[in-house]
## 1
Amino acid sequence: MKIFSTTRVFVCCFVIGTGVIAKGDDRTTSPSVEAKKITAAKTSPEADETTAPDAEPAEEEKAKVLSIGSLAPSLDIEHWVGDSPSPMSKFEPGKVYVIEFWATWCGPCLYSMPHLAELQSKYEDQGVRVVSISNEGLRTVTSFLERPVSPKILGLPEPKEEADEEVGESDEEAATEEEAKPITFGELTSAYSLTTDPDESVYEDYMRAAAQNGIPTAFIVGKDGYVEWIGHPMSMDEPLEAVVNDEWDRGPAKEEFERKQKVDLALREILLAYRTKHHETTLRLLQEHSDLFQGTRYETALKSIWFPTALATQQNEIALELIEEKIESNPDDVVAINRWAWEVYEAIESGWDNSDEILMTTTNALESALASEENESNEALWPAYDTVAHLKALANDTDAAIEWQRRAIETAPDGEKDNLKAYLRELTGEASDADDELNAADEETNED
């Protein structure tokens, strides 16, 4: 069955995975009827069907103990990189620290580097120290530091490939002087402490403990050694200034962060259950956390999990409500309706009891969309005709199913007709007669 195969769509909507998660806007077969149905959006992108564990998925670790207001863990960093790394492990009272996590492959991390260097220079005399930590190998990081920095990262225009022929010698000299000499990442980051910790002990103490999965992420540690703020380094100017000037109120920031933390943890738990095909668990978690997602960017997108989960668990009331919402939002969108209608067909065909109302509502919605003025001149509706035929067959309306399948065959590309005819033969039980009749119809069409 393929009714539960929307994982990749869902992951794209949320920009989330089991590994690194994007944070905000910048955190980082042969042709056949079935193939055409996929390209026509009849079926959802397929998930990994090799994973089908029998046991319930393991619960998320409960060691998510680091939050705003927590005592900051000491730094057990393996390698301090650069000309003057000045290794440290304990936080000195009265000083402020920015602990930032990055990687050489992370584009947003690289674009954050000039800002980190600027903040270090700005607050150095006020006891601020920036420590940036990668979990990559030492050789990877040291090699990276030798690379030249792209002008885009520095906020500079790209150098011109060819000089203007009309520019005089004096102008050329001035332009040369104005052009910034290329610098390496090692030079760019020399203002602050760049490090790497391949055993991920610090990553464990900070990122995993705070349920943070996207980089770059920065932690501001205040003068008393407690975490004051957690977030994207490009968004920390205001809190950092307030912490330095003893004007920071961590209460509101803590409340906002912990709400987001709960949302992220719940979302990850739902994804784990969904991907491992534990549909009952997924349904329970969706119901349990429905209030938590209200007002978040995930609220609408979660419906892409609600629908296949409702189908998988045969939740008539939930499925019908979602179907009615889909119809109301796109009553004439044949492609959209055809997509979820095929999911409904597969769910019912697999043995869904008491689904007559869902079958009727789905069939009516697709027929209504096909009959709309918007789709009168659309010549690419054969996948929907084929879906209606399948739905009619489920309702034991064989005559109507045959009629719709004939329409699908008449309008389908030549490469799809044989596969569509196979289903027609299944409906009619008269393989040779049906084929002869259709072939004759094709010949008449060609002669015309």
## 2
Amino acid sequence: MRVLATLANPHRMRVIATLLDKRAYVSELARDLGISRALLQVHLRKLEAAGLVESRLELSADGKAMKFYEVTPLAFTLTPGSIAEAAATLTAARAAGEDD
């Protein structure tokens, strides 16, 4: 279960928690979380790949392209089997050298 593996990182959980109240663009979100935009971009890509957030490009009044992120509506049922499946994925990722 890719979602559990993605949420295993505390920064990503904080991103989701912050986006619950409002959608935000990268610079605004980085300021709110107190992390660099580069680090935030890494986490946003992983969250988007797991289907937990979605992004949309919009033009500001001055014509600047801004990428806004928001939480994707979701609901999951955890079972012992799905937790075991997620644990196997984490173990395989670590063995392959994929660090978060």
## 3
Amino acid sequence: MVWMIVVAAIAVLGAGAMVAGGAFNGMRSEPETDDFVPTLPATRMTGEDLQQVRFQVQLRGYDMPSVDNLLARLAREIDQREAELAELRQKVSEPTSGDFLPVSAEDAE
């Protein structure tokens, strides 16, 4: 009786190993890769776009080239926005020919 239980247990374990090994076409022959590429908009990024970014996790953390590429892009966009902001601030602070200049009471006489 004990021998029958041992043989049945071996048969069940063997069948489980065969299923796990793909003997019954249960697994694909080619490996599945986890190549997750974050989708970034072609235009300027917004805060919401940045919150939606997810990176591929690897053995020792996140995929470093993906993180480096995103940081480089954000640095370029911040530099562009700072330059545009400085240009707009300069335009606002400089009077143009059509602007009225403030006149003191002494100059009015």
## 4
Amino acid sequence: MRVLIAAFTAVVLAVPARADVDIHEVTSPGGIDAWLVEEHSIPFLALELRFRGGASVDAPGKRGAINLMTGLLEEGAGEMDSRDFAVATESLAAEFDFDVRNDALSISAKVLTENRDEALDLLRQALVEPRFDEEALERVRGQVLSSIDSDTRDPETIASNTYAELAFGAHPYGAPLDGTAESVAALTREDIVEAHGRVLARDRVYVSAVGDITADELGALLDRLLGDLPETGAPMPDRIDYTLDGGVTVVEFDTPQSVVSFGQRGLTRHDPDFFPAYVMTHILGGGGFSSRLMGEVREKRGLTYGIGVYLYPMNLSEMLMGYVSSANDRVAETVEVVRAEWEKLAAEGVTEEELESAKTYLTGAYPLRFDGNGRIANILVGMQMDGLTPDYVRTRNDKIRAVTLEDVRRVATELVDPEQLHFVVVGKPAGLTASN
């Protein structure tokens, strides 16, 4: 059966990529909203659930509880212990994936039509009747603690965590979502049960379904799957404005190559200037070998193998972030080149050639994202969380094409701020000292 679902998945992925999907808005009899794309040519369904809040709604002093709880959702449910649950999942050729980030807890399900009801009843038990057995709790806790310990020796994670702490302090965004060794070791089963109710609630769930199912069937399925969850979860944390000043933070770490996270404030997904900023960011550092930073830092100077910049609009704050790594004796030069490109962009904007090239790439690459039921379901649920409408898949490229040179130059002037640009450098950077 596992081979069968893998074969179906391969067929689905072979369907030509297209962004003109026909999205239906569905409301179940019990009031649960979802987006549906029907595709009956293959007896297969991809279902995506996303619960807003994610690890950010950890209880005070219980950082890491929601991450640990998420890892336990497939470790036994109802009358089944972890082994029985795994065997039942395997026998139905179902695939479940549970993941959590700061802004959302995500559940992906892939099931065959012939086993759909039984497979999703199994998923329902994982969501509504998780066992949280002590044996499973200790085993998964050990895995989390091992991961936390490994992170203390990973310069990329150290850079990312240090940047988040500097930018957001005591806010949930400022601490690793998997918690600390001390906070995870102290978590009890009661903390895990409470974490479950804080995040898995109907008032924050977003749903998309792509595949062999009708609107009526989906509505009934959603009430059965989610209807017994609590109506409301924990309150969302407050918004936090990004206020980190420009400068350099150095974290000493014994490695031949320094890792750098850098950034400044960003803008929200619904800012009128989001699309000009998106195109501008692609030109600066999002376009692979065609980006300015790749050209200046790698191609001209050989300072790195890769560098990138991206807009990062979170639910409760927003950043313009970048990453790079470079040899310890050259990272100071790398930082200066990045800062110089920030200044150039703010002062001069971009060229017409750069703009047209970016627009061509971004509009051409967009349909390639829609290359399978699972990918489409993931895109659709993300659109819902961003507050977009179903017609976005048809209008998105028009918004890219409408960006003008003047738009990008205005946004570069207003958003790009060399004085606010902050670098967190993890390594032993020669000639680079901390500054604020």
